[in-house]
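Inverse folding, one chain.
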């Protein structure tokens, strides 16, 4: 008999059985897409949190120069290092 009436009904034979049309590959594709999506969200949030790190260091360096804690030569040397 071509259309077998199982516990899940007649419609299950049209969708490819238990695993669906893609078989076990559908599970791996879904898992891969989920991991990719979570990774992208993590990367975006991480960049937003640490994006202005160089600007903060440059502002701190300027404050130290203005307060007289470092010389002009040391300020320019460290500023060039931060701008690289």
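Residues assigned per position:
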């Amino acid at each position: 008999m071509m259309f077998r009436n199982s516990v899940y009904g007649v419609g299950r034979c049209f969708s490819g059985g238990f695993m669906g049309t893609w078989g076990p590959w559908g599970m791996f594709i879904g898992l891969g897409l989920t991991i990719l999506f979570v990774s992208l969200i993590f990367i975006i949030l991480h960049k937003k949190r640490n994006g202005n790190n160089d600007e903060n260091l440059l502002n701190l360096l300027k404050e130290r120069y203005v307060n007289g804690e470092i010389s002009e030569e040391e300020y320019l040397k460290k500023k060039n290092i931060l701008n690289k």
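The two ends are 74 Å apart (CA to CA). The longest helix spans residues 24-50.
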